[in-house]
Amino acid sequence: MPIMSLDGVLPGDDNDLNDKLDLFVQQAVSDDDAVIYAFGQHWVDASKEGVLVEL
């Protein structure tokens, strides 16, 4: 799969980062041995309504 840029959330199915990550998160939730590593940093969203906070 090629590297591509994705918007965080868009209307519709399987077309944004949230949709792509959700598949893997749901699989991990049902697997007691699953481990998820997330790398990155917080950013201001495109609408400038706020900052996505770090966990």
List the helices and strands and how they pair.
Elements: H1 17-29
Summary, kept brief:
The chain is mostly helical.
Query: How many domains would you count in the coordinates?
Result: 1
Strand content: under 5%
Helical element count? 1
DSSP strand count: 0
Gross morphology: globular
Evaluate the radius of gyration.
Answer: 13 Å
H and E string: H
Tell me, rounded to a whole number, the average pLDDT. 76
Description:
- The chain is mainly alpha-helical.
- The chain has one domain (1-55).
- Helix content is 24%, strand content 0%.
- It has one helix spanning 17-29.
- The radius of gyration is 13 Å and the shape is globular.
Offer a few descriptive terms.
single chain; 55 residues; mainly alpha; 1 helix; 24% helix; 0% strand
